[in-house]
Amino acid sequence: MNAEDAVEQILKEIHLLFAESREFLGEPGTILVNKEKVFALLEKLNFSMRAVVESAGATARQQEMARLRSEKEGAKIVKEYQRQADDVYAASLIYTEDALSRTKRLIDLAAEQAQDIMRKTAYDLEQQKQQIQTNKAELREQLQDFKESRKYILILEESERQR
């Protein structure tokens, strides 16, 4: 039986003791009770009330301890989630740095390839230009053979004027 039930039981016993007692010399509201029984019940009530008070104090201490444990556990959980969040953030920074490095290498490679293409194209154009000059020189030589013919001289002169 817990302390609260014991107090309730003792109060019932006191009530029954008073209810079953006889009136004193015919005076209504005044009764005769056994002093030893009343004191014994009051002593039991005193002990039971102390137990209730101690129980309430223990309960308050238990609640405070539970609150402190909860706060400590909550702080521990928050710290763990903060650590995990920091780990994720650090990993994202590492990933981003790696991605940027790879992108830079690709851009450098593309720039080198573009420069190679431009050099090759410039070289090819220069070769074609030289080939054109060579072809033009050969044509002029061949046309010189026809120089005596007035018709070709007129064509050459007209061509030169148009240029």
Structure report:
With 163 residues, the protein is mainly α. 87% of the residues lie in helices and 4% in strands. It contains three helices and two strands; from the N terminus they run H-E-E-H-H. The chain has helices at residues 3-20, 35-145, 150-162, and strands spanning 23-24, 27-31. A hairpin with a 2-residue loop joins strand 1 and strand 2 (27-31). The radius of gyration is 58 Å and the shape is rod-shaped. It starts with a helix and ends with a helix. The relative contact order is 0.04. The mean pLDDT is 88.
Summarize the structure.
This protein has three helices and two strands. A two-stranded antiparallel sheet has the order 1-2.
Helix-strand layout with pairing:
Layout lengths: L2 H18 L2 E2 L2 E5 L3 H111 L4 H13 L1
Antiparallel strand pairs: 1-2
Helix pairs in contact: 1-2
Primary descriptors:
about 160 residues; mainly alpha; two-stranded antiparallel ribbon; 3 helices; 2 strands; about 85% helix
Tell me how many strands there are.
Answer: 2
- Annotation field: number of helices: 3
Quote the distance from N terminus to C terminus: 125 Å
Give the ordered list of helices and strands: HEEHH
Our estimate of the beta-strand percent is under 5%
The helicity comes to: over 70%
Q: Looking at the chains present, what oligomeric state does this protein adopt? A: single chain
Question: What is the C-alpha radius of gyration, as a whole number of Å?
Answer: 58 Å
Low-confidence stretches: none
Mean pLDDT, rounded to whole units? 88
Main beta-sheet strand count, sense and barrel state: 2 strands, antiparallel
The gross shape turns out to be rod-shaped
Query: How does the helix and strand content classify structurally?
Result: mainly alpha
